[in-house]
Amino acid sequence: MQTREAVLEVENLQKYYPVKKGLLLQREIGRVRAVDQVSFCLYRGETLGVIGESGCGKTTLSRLIIGLEQPTGGEIRFLGQPAGRRMSAGLRQRMQMVFQDPYSSLDPRMSVRRILEEPLRIHTRMTAKEKRQKILPLLEQVGLPEEALKKYPHEFSGGQRQRIGIARALVTGPDLLLCDEPVSALDVSIQAQVLNLFRQLQRRYALTCLFVSHDMSVIRHVSDRVLVMYLGQVMETADKKTLFEAPAHPYTKALMQAVPVPDPTRPAVGAVLEGEIPSPIHAPEGCPFSTRCPHAQERCRAQRPPLYDLGGGHAAACHLYAEEAVR
Amino acid sequence: MRKNKLTRKRWPVPPTILFLMITFAAIVGAALLAPVLAPIDLAANDLTTRLLLPTFRDPASPHLLGTDNLGRDVVVRLLYATRTTISISFTGMLIATAIGTALGVLAGLCGGAVDVIISFLTDVRLSVPTTFIGIIFACVMGATPTTTIVVIAITGWSSFCRLVRSQIFQLRGAKFIEASRAMGASGLRIVFEHILVNIASPLIVQATMELSGFILLESTLSFLGLGIQPPGTSLGVMVSTGRDYMLTHWWLAIAPSAVIIVLILQISLVGDWLRDKLDPKLKNAS
Predict the structure, then answer these.
(1) Coiled coil located at which positions (chain B) (predicted)?
(2) How many domains is chain B partitioned into structurally?
(3) Can you give the CATH number for the domain in which B226 is found?
(4) Are the beta carbons of A118 and B2 separated by less than 8 Å?
(5) Chains A, B: CB pairs < 8 Å
(6) How far is B73 from chain A (nearest CA, A)?
(7) Rounded Cα distance, B214 and A165, in Å
(8) What ipTM score was computed for the predicted complex, to two decimals?
(9) pLDDT at B283
(10) Domain for residue B64, yes or no?
(11) Is the CB of B182 less than 8 angstroms away from the CB of A104?
């Protein structure tokens, strides 16, 4: 395998939110570990899907990377330089984000032209004509007519708005695109359209993406590699094929079984996971999944498993693989 | 620009509103052009023509609304008075809006201690009666038009500040602000490109609503003798001097009062209409 250029390196990233109690003299009674010791690497041209239940820290992860939140610890390196809140304007321009809610992520008082030009206004000093030349091909790419430029966001449907959001993120020609649940606010039929558009753009611009979603089928559709998160921690990471066909971690297995199969003749699989996600304030001592895991042993409750390397870029944080691991 | 476009789209403006706007423009226009329409010396008086009857009492009288206690034509004085009142309250309104918006933006965006201090100042301001502030300023600065503008600005900013602050608190959670931050926009750019544009319409509505209050405040202060001093005139001054002749020459007080009432009605009704008009939800509905 040839050496690939790492666009984004995340190392031991942590984000803790203090939980405070009291009216005047607030004392910290605990911490929510939203993102806990997450490490991964994203190479040029690939799409990493981040999957997990709600509240597992996947959105916080993307917000940390783009610098909307200050990490508690750890390191983010983008194109070899430290990224996050204080990254330089030049670096920031190379990283863009598509937001979850296309209804509130576009300013209702701005025309589509001004929305699309916003990144250019922030980062460049282009003339009106140059800006127009920049946004017109993108508008066509995302399937909107030129007349759309004069309109305002409320004149568009959810799917069209998300197309505008995607076009806005691509205007500066970013090296990294962060997608935070870009289709979860849309109807299923529209989701498919937007995802297909996304696939087209991926191929056309050789995009490097971090794609966050809670939807297994969405992740399967768009990503090359997948990162499974649970309670702020990485449970398993593997290329898409391995993860969907031979998942290693019990949590991933449970997730796979929870995906509904569109075949009425197949008997329904009963609920595979018992219980609720533990509150992240009182996260379990050892493996975060130990409270619900069918294979949980004494060791799992006491000691947090590291990510065991299973070879071929496959790694799982589970003590079951302690022996198999390639050391 | 945007507003013109909307008005054009929704043409016609309801006839009542159009009527109000035209009459308001006519009154303000006539008042502002007073020195051209009727160039007089405000201080000049002629006791031989004092308290002449108006045309509706004596059809032979050349004075439409008669003359006042110093023999000056009431219609001409009304023009000058309206001119003073409107320019003072409008200037005061602009300053109050600017101060209120700036403080509101600061409170809303900085939050924390800044917000606490500004909100406290707002509460303090609201707890002191307006007229009381007027009296104190008139004592310290002297009763001049400038003082009246200062009093309007100092008493008027608080409602703008509250409005802007609450609007910003609503906006702060908006994803498009966050998106802008993620794109690398600076705080100032976000304020000018997103926040001010989004709070402009409630602010304009608030300003029109407050303007009627400021006209009233100017009149109140002048009526009490804390505002405009003779020989200068304002609607409040005219009501105040006309009051002494209520029994015999009631129109001397009623005419300026009527102008105040008409101005305030026009502004409030147009403001009401503007509020509905600029509401994005109502806009989307059609």
Answers:
(1) none
(2) 1
(3) 1.10.3720.10
(4) no
(5) 60
(6) 51
(7) 44
(8) 0.82
(9) 53
(10) no
(11) no
d(C-alpha A157, C-alpha A143), whole Å: 13
Residues 6+ apart with CB under 8 A from B56: none
Q: What pTM was estimated for this model as a whole?
A: 0.77
With bands split at pLDDT 50, 70 and 90, how would you rate the model's confidence at B103?
Answer: very high
Tell me if chain A has a CB within 8 Å of the CB of B196.
no
CB atoms under 10 Å from CB of A4, counted, come to 12
Dist CA A270 CA A291 (whole Å): 19
Window 90-149 of B: residues touching A by CB (8 A cutoff) are none
Spatial CA neighbour of B259 closest among B215, B224, B220:
B215
Please give the Cα distance from A316 to A252 (Å, whole number). Answer: 10
Percent of chain B with pLDDT over 90: 34
What percent of chain B lies above the pLDDT cut of 70? 93
pLDDT winner (highest mean) among A13-22, A165-174, A292-301, B206-215: A165-174
Contacts by B272-278, CB closer than 8 A, 24 or more apart? B273/B14, B273/B17, B274/B204, B274/B205, B274/B208, B275/B202, B275/B205, B277/B6, B277/B7, B277/B10, B278/B3, B278/B6, B278/B201, B278/B202, B278/B204, B278/B205
Q: Give the distance between the most distant pair of CA atoms in chain B.
A: 77
Tell me, rounded to whole angstroms, the distance of Cα A121 from its chain centroid.
27
Cα(B253)–Cα(B239) distance, integer angstroms: 4
**Whole domain around residue B192: which residue ranges?**
82-285
In a domain, residue B180? The reply is yes
B264 in any annotated domain: yes
| Mean pLDDT calculated for residue range A15-25 | 79
**B69 lies in some domain:** no
What confidence tier does A125 reach under pLDDT thresholds 50, 70, 90? confident
